[in-house]
From TrEMBL:
<dbReference type="InterPro" id="IPR033132">
    <property type="entry name" value="GH_1_N_CS"/>
</dbReference>
<dbReference type="GO" id="GO:0008422">
    <property type="term" value="F:beta-glucosidase activity"/>
</dbReference>
<keyword id="KW-0326">Glycosidase</keyword>
<dbReference type="InterPro" id="IPR018120">
    <property type="entry name" value="Glyco_hydro_1_AS"/>
</dbReference>
<dbReference type="InterPro" id="IPR001360">
    <property type="entry name" value="Glyco_hydro_1"/>
</dbReference>
<dbReference type="Pfam" id="PF00232">
    <property type="entry name" value="Glyco_hydro_1"/>
</dbReference>
<dbReference type="GO" id="GO:0005829">
    <property type="term" value="C:cytosol"/>
</dbReference>
<feature type="active site" description="Nucleophile">
    <location>
        <position position="383"/>
    </location>
</feature>
<dbReference type="GO" id="GO:0016052">
    <property type="term" value="P:carbohydrate catabolic process"/>
</dbReference>
<protein>
    <submittedName>
        <fullName>6-phospho-beta-glucosidase</fullName>
    </submittedName>
</protein>
<keyword id="KW-0378">Hydrolase</keyword>
<dbReference type="InterPro" id="IPR017853">
    <property type="entry name" value="GH"/>
</dbReference>
<comment type="similarity">
    <text>Belongs to the glycosyl hydrolase 1 family.</text>
</comment>
Amino acid sequence: MANFKFPKNFLWGGATAANQLEGAYNEGGKGLSIFDMVKFVPKEERGNDPEMDVRSEKELEELLSLGDGENFPKRRGIDFYHRYQEDIALFAEMGFKVFRMSISWPRIFPNGDELTPNEEGLAFYDKVFDELQKYGIEPLVTLSHYEIPLNLVQKYNGWADRRVIEFFVHYAETVFNRYKDKVKYWLTFNEINISQFSPYIGSGILIDRVEHKEQAVYQALHHQFVASARAVKACHEIIPGSQIGCMLARMEVYPETCNPRDVLTALEEDQKNLFFTDVQVRGYYPSHMLSYFEKNNIQIKMFPGDEEILLQHPVDFLSFSYYMTMVASGDPAKLKQKGNFSSGILNPYLETSDWGWQIDPTGLRITLKKLYDRYEVPLFIVENGLGAYDKVEEDGSIQDDYRIDYLREHIKAMGDAIQDGVDLIGYTTWGCIDLISAGTSEMSKRYGFIYVDQDDYGHGTLKRTPKKSFHWYKDVIASNGVNL
């Protein structure tokens, strides 16, 4: 039993992304997406590299020449496209108040730069939203969750080209107008800071086509900031009463010691991470980033009106993913360890997941307090969960107590933060149903409350089976976080 209370209308639910879930990559008029080009690489061949990037035009051409005999897991997902009714019924059985999903941009505009949308794609999401509405589940919709039509990469080098702003705004306005009576919660870009680590996945940039990588990445990010602000403006105008937020991959960083060099390094890492939300929530570039640009010969080309649009149309709430914390040292010789697209020194006080991600519920409370202190806007945790190997027992059950333990402690930390005065409006656990991993394209890295019978090579019946955590989370939601 928890000794605190969550707000009465707290939004409990789960989170997914179209490119890890839907499948049907070549059905319903859908165009190719950047993630459709990411192959599965077995763990023994991968090492510590997530292998998410496509780095050159030549590599992309080679991938395009491969047939369906190759293993492109994001193309198949878990077949939500044909099984959405069954899956949503399971979410409803758990009592979801909200379901975080994304719209596949190339399902609506197959090439990204058309004037007329693909009606088949629009109709598919109508059916999904109607199904959610049937059970009283609010959709929380991400406009771009690592989702860029491949044509925009080939023709414009993705967000490196300012013209992509207009294509995105046209796409956003199209779906706002179509779903204005069905969706009131929106997000612009998923983990907008990912471009720092993966220019291809975050911004659709092929690195061999640019001279100065950092220049290209930050210019692309500026275009995304402007596009996000314009989407916020359009959302408020088209859907009265709507709420639209930004989304950050939050990386809380601790200094390794109380040596001032470590503390300063941790502070600087924190500033880099929060730069994105500084722009989207506060509405302007922080001075430390302007200084960084100057020192690193990065010149952001701004058009007249860019700064005004950022300032006039900040987001309504700040959403973020939280999986782990990092440790920073002022000593550059310290051994670095990868995790969640970043790196950091191993924290001796924390346990580690099957994938080397350190488990830190208290870090979530720290992050919530820090973000609310800094911005004083409502917060929404839209990704949090444990990727683990799940075993199907002889009786067909999945006894995932480790997942329950992980989520329980993080929910307690959320409750403590709310007691501390933080305005937290909701919580959607990542991968509420097993899906394809974003980073490694594995199926064996499972997050869900619902087991999906499919392996890393696409073999399996796709049968859905509730795990032990399914029934636990159902009780958590029914008791509004009291029964943990």
